[in-house]
Amino acid sequence: MPDDSLETSLADGQVRTITDLARLAGVSPGTVSRALAGNALVNARTRDRIQQLARTHGFQLNQMASNLRRQKTGVVGVAIPLGHDRRQQISDSFFMTLLGHLADELTEHGYDLMLRRVIPDRDEDWLARFTGSGMVDGLIVIGQSDQFDRIEEAAAAYLPMVVWGNHQQGQRHCVVGTDNRLGGRLAAQQLIAAGATSLMFLGDTEPMEFAARFAGAGDVAARAGVPIMACPTHLAIDRMPDEIAGHLARHAGQIDGIFAATDTLAVACLKALQDRGLAVPQRMRLVGFDDLPLAGQTVPPLTTIRQDIAAGARGLVDLLLRRLAGEKTESLVLPPELVVRATA
């Protein structure tokens, strides 16, 4: 039992070390350290009492020292490689939505986040700077961009890495992402069902995720005998509006349905269509991809393909934690969902 007189003598805020807290609780310093770390080896009642004493006296375990002893940093790296569109910003709505969910999940598991925007042609060793730095316990990569081979090479030697992206048969690196090809099929089906007879795909077809979305739309269009053209469009905000306007100027009279590779592109396209006096969906049907929060706020509200970004963030963190524990995990492919609103 703890010494009541000792608890009184330390009640003035002088609990500065684990030893102080251990004397107050009547246990060993090792028991205090394990209790504050939530270790199940400590009796639940004792653990709760020690944690309550720590809160009462404003004591916190020196996490940095604890991490050093365990050879852990408590930090997860998050890299966003932009080899395909180096002028794109991480303020893009998709990145911010996913990063928000990731930060929530990592915080729940006691990890901090180290974020880096990567321009691969400026830094060929960007992956090694994470995996060999000792500054992070593991790595989450958002998007394969044009870095598939480099990520594959790193995955051969570095286990605690999970990638948000597109999965293809036989790849080595662990991926969490949506079935992009199926999402593309759903988009094209909806456009054609809404009366579209000639389609445009708005987006860059080089990144793996976008290529799969275009391929899926192409599958459906081919079966329906509906032509579809790809119009490469950057996601960099300083280029996107002019490129979309140019595509519409050249092709608006030839198409009556647009599948935008992202909701960000779809929202910009919706404005460009309105600027040209093309009513949506009466004269032009439009479908996006992502179902970001802004998709339901456009006028008219955007029909889109939903990928469950919150579930994706949970999957990324779960798989990373399992790989940190030494487990070799399979990829997680999430099903897309058609969200019908008013643009198609």
Molecular structure report:
By secondary structure, the protein is an alpha/beta fold. It has three domains: 4-61, lambda repressor-like DNA-binding domains (434 Repressor (Amino-terminal Domain), Orthogonal Bundle), CATH 1.10.260; 75-179 and 309-334, Response regulator (Rossmann fold), CATH 3.40.50; 180-306, Rossmann fold (3-Layer(aba) Sandwich). Helices cover 42% and strands 16% of the residues. The protein has 13 helices and twelve strands. It has helices at 4-9, 18-25, 29-36, 44-56, 63-69, 93-108, 126-131, 148-155, 180-193, 208-224, 240-251, 263-275, 309-324; strands at 75-81, 112-118, 138-142, 161-164, 174-178, 199-202, 228-231, 257-260, 285-290, 303-306, 332-334, 337-339. The protein has a six-stranded parallel sheet with strand order 2-1-3-4-5-11. It has a six-stranded mixed sheet with strand order 7-6-8-9-10-12, sandwiched between helices.
Keywords, separated by commas or semicolons:
about 350 residues; alpha/beta; 434 Repressor (Amino-terminal Domain); Rossmann fold; six-stranded parallel β-sheet; six-stranded mixed β-sheet; 13 helices; disordered N terminus; LacI/GalR-like_sensor; LacI family transcriptional regulator
